[in-house]
Amino acid sequence: MKSYPTVADTIGATPLVRLQRIAADICQKNNNIILAKLEGNNPAGSVKDRPALSMIEEAERSGKIKPGDTLIEATSGNTGIALAMAAAIKGYHMILIMPDNLSVERRVSMKVYGAELILTKASEGGMEHARDLALKMQEEGQGVVLNQFANLANPLAHIKGTGPEIWQQTEGQVSHFISAMGTTGTITGVATYLKQQRSSIQVIGAQPSPGASIPGIRKWSDDYQPEIFKPELIDAYELIGQAEAEQMASRLAKEEGIFAGISSGGALVAALRVAERVQNATIVFIICDRGNRYLSLGIY
C-alpha cells in the first residue's frame, strides 16, 4: 500500500520567491536580488510550525512529556497556533497564555485546534506577564512549559531546516539574511547554519522603533531576553516603525501577491534598506506568516 505523508510531514520545504515590483528599481540599480521565504505556506500558517513540532518531539525523546500530558506556553500568536496544531497531531492538551490586546483571528485559530486559551491583561505586563504566569502554572503542577524562549529545539529546527533550505535554494549565493526578531529562534537558527557555510554572510535583525507595536517584532528587556538568542551572530539591526511595517505588508499583497503579516512587512523594509547600501547581493528575508490572521487590525 502506498505510504502517504501526515500533516507533520508537510512542515518545511517552503518556497523561496523573487520580488518583482516593490524592489525593482533598487535591485536594478545595484544589481541585487531580493528573495522572500514563504513560511506562511506551512500547514498552520507560519514559520513557528517548525520549532513547535521540534520542541514537542524533543520533549518526547527526552522523556519530559508523554501523549496525554498537558502542555503550557506563553505566546503572542504564531507559536501558540503552531503548538496548538502540533499538540492536536500528537495528542496533547494545550494551554496557551496570551495578552488580550492581540488579534481575535489568532485567538480563534488556537481554539480551532482544540487549545485552551488564557487571556491576560496587556496593561498588567503583556508577554512578560504571560511568560511568568506559564512558569507559575508549571510550578503548581498544571502542565509542562516547553518554553520557546529557552528551548534549544527552537533554533535547532532552523539549523536543520530553514537554514539549509535557504542555502540550497540560492545555490549558496545568499549574501544577506534578514528576519524580524521576536522569540529570536528563527534568526538564531538560520544565522548559525548560514555562517557555518560562509562566515561573511551578513545577518540583519529587524527590531521595533521606540513606541512601535508590531506583532512578531519586539525588543525584550534584559530580564526577559530569550536564552536561545546569540547576539554575536547578528551583524546589524534595523529599527522598524509601525506605520512603515503596516504599509509594506499592504504593498506586499497588492504589488507582489504575497498576503503576509505585519512583521513580514517590517522585514522587507529592512531588506530594502540593505539593498540600497550594497551591490551584487542576494538578499533573503522571511515572510513569517499569513496576513489573514491580522484582518481585524484594519491595515490592509
Automatic annotation (TrEMBL):
EC number(s) given by UniProt: 2.5.1.47
Binding site for pyridoxal 5'-phosphate: N78, G182, T183, T184, G185, T186, S263
Pathway per the UniProt entry: Amino-acid biosynthesis; L-cysteine biosynthesis; L-cysteine from L-serine: step 2/2
Membrane-spanning segments: none
Location of N6-(pyridoxal phosphate)lysine modifications: K48
Cofactor: pyridoxal 5'-phosphate
Pfam family, one: PALP
Family: Belongs to the cysteine synthase/cystathionine beta-synthase family.
Name of the protein in question: Cysteine synthase
Source organism of the structure: Pelistega indica
